[in-house]
Structures are given as C-alpha cells and as structure tokens.
Amino acid sequence: EFLLYLRIQLQIFRTSHLPPHMIGHKESLAEDFNYLNLSTLKDSEHPQCFFMYGRPLWSSLMSPSLGDTKGFVPHSIINLAMDKLVGGMTYTSWKKKHKNRISIVEALAILGPRLCIDIVPQSEYAPSLVSNFMRYCINISDDRKNITTSMSTEPVLAEASAQIMNDPDIKLIEIINELISSLQDGGVEGGYRGELVARLLLLKAWDDVYKKLDAPSTRIHYSRFMTLSDFLKSLLAENAYDKISSRLQERVTFTGTEFGQAYIKFTHFI
Q1: Which domain holds residue 238?
Q2: Which residue, among 101, 54, 98, 100, has the nearest Cα to 78 in the 3D structure?
Q3: 50 and 125 in a common domain
Q4: Same domain, 230 and 118
Q5: Is the predicted pLDDT of residue 46 greater than 70, yes or no?
Q6: CA 69 – CA 94 distance, rounded (Å)
Q7: Measured between alpha carbons, how far is 179 from 108 in angstroms, rounded to an integer?
Q8: Is the Cβ–Cβ distance between 57 and 64 less than 8 Å?
Q9: Are residues 124 and 62 both part of a single domain?
Q10: Within a domain: residue 2?
Q11: Which of 60, 113, 177, 246 is the most buried (most CB within 10 A)?
C-alpha cells in the first residue's frame, strides 16, 4: 500500500506540478510574460507585469487561480511588501513604535532590496534577516556558523523599500546611520571603492524626482521611468549640470530625439 501511495503521488507531481521559479538575478514565472506583449517602458509599469517579477507571492495575490476569488488591488500588495520588510507587523504599527529608533537589522532590511548590501556570512544579522525580513539563505556551513545570504532582484520589494525610505514620517538619516554602524562593526561589506555610497547617491537622486510628483492610483510610484535630463539634474550640482546641458540637447541620429529626452529606469542594484 505504501509503494502504491508513493507511485500515485509521483504521478500527480509529474502531471500537475507548477513550472519552476527561478529566484536570483532573473525573474520568476518568466514564461508568463509572453501574453503581455511588452514593448515599452510604460508597459512595464502595468500591474500585471510589475507584480509578476520576483517571488510568486506577489503574482498569486494579483491574479489568484481559485475560481472567482478576487485578487488584491495593487496598492494592497505594496502595503503587504512594506509590512514584510519591517518584520511582519503592519507598517503603520511599526512606524508608530519604531520610527524614532530603527535597529541595524531593520535598516538593513529596508535598504536591502535596493542597495545590494553584502552581509558578512559570520554576521549576527544574517540569520535574523533570513528568518524575519525576506532575505534569502543561500548556504549554511557545516558548523552552522556561516550563513551566506542574498537579496534577489525584486521590483515589488524595491518599490516598498523606496516608499519607506521616502516616508516623511521616517528619517532617512537614521536608517543611514544604522547602515554606517553595521559597516563599522564588520557585519556588512562596504565595497573597496565606495560602491555602497555611490548606489545610495544614485537612488537618492532618482527618488528626489518622484517625491515632487503625485503617486499614481496603483502606488507603483518610484518604479516609473524618467528622462535622462531629469535624472542628471537631480543628481548633479547646478554648475555641473550646466556644463553638460548642451550635450543633452544634441539629437540622436537614429531616433531624431534629444539625447537628454531618452528615457531611463532603474529601481535597485544587483
């Protein structure tokens, strides 16, 4: 009977299992994008596209397969992602409780989906980030002392991270100070040439453009595209931007448009 049971279970698995999900530097459920016929950056902002990247949780909430069950609206999924990044309690409750004292682990969890932070395997932060804050465990050493972790490319978590970082009730400087503390105590690799600082500056310049604009109804706010000119104007000092502004007005031969009017989009580093 036991062998018969195993045979039946194996047959069910062979005929009805879901396609594998690749989590790493590629999106999950990539084969499902064919029906969307994506061709522009604007298409990539469509919720059905945006929530298909990353772990399957987001897409399953957007488009459940249980009969007539209605899926989550986009902003509810963003809210859930924000809840996950602060340890599981609702973001509103967490903000009331922790906004004046953010821990190192919470700061690393908030910045992690965007900043590509390298957590030292021997660090005390690694197990906590995996167990409570959405970070992946890649490997555990035989003696259980080293835990190799990673944060895959997940636009949903990157958007949630951006919204927390730019919340007017949250002091970004406090989050950055905790990141600095983690660098000083050796729990995080800072990079040999200031890579972490460079990433933070680029993201801050990107966010500052959209902080001035109203968020769309989908709440997919910081994951939209912008022109190269808008980004460089935010990133550079005024005198530095003036030096290159004439080059940005040059027309690109094969498009006929100004170089500075080219669209760019990025939300996180990998």
Answers
A1: 226-264
A2: 54
A3: yes
A4: no
A5: yes
A6: 30
A7: 7
A8: no
A9: yes
A10: no
A11: 113
Q: Give the Cα separation of 259 and 61 in Å (integer).
A: 39
Count of structural domains, the chain: 2
Residue 181 lies in a domain: yes
Identify each DSSP E strand in 13-151 by its residue range.
118-119, 136-140, 147-150
Residues 72 and 188 placed together within one structural domain of the fold: yes
Amino acid at 223: S
Taken as a whole, the chain contains a residue count of 270
Tell which residue, 259, 263, 261, 166, has the closest CA to residue 205: 166
pLDDT tens sequence across 124-178: 999 999 999 999 999 999 999 999 999 988 999 999 999 999 999 999 999 999 9
Distance CA 242, CA 155 (A): 33
Q: What is the DSSP letter of 211?
A: H
Please, is 85 exposed, middle or buried when counting C-beta atoms within 10 Å of its C-beta (0-12, 13-18, 19+)? buried
Structure tokens at 156: 């949903």
Q: Is the pLDDT of residue 62 over 50?
A: yes
**Mean pLDDT over each residue of the chain, to the nearest integer:** 84
**Has residue 219 been placed in a domain?**
no
Contact 161, 83 (CB under 8 A): no
**For residue 6, is it within any domain?**
no
Check whether residue 158 and residue 256 sit in a common domain.
Answer: no
Return d(Cα 208, Cα 239) in angstroms, integer.
18
Which comes out higher in pLDDT, residue 67 or 254? Answer: 254
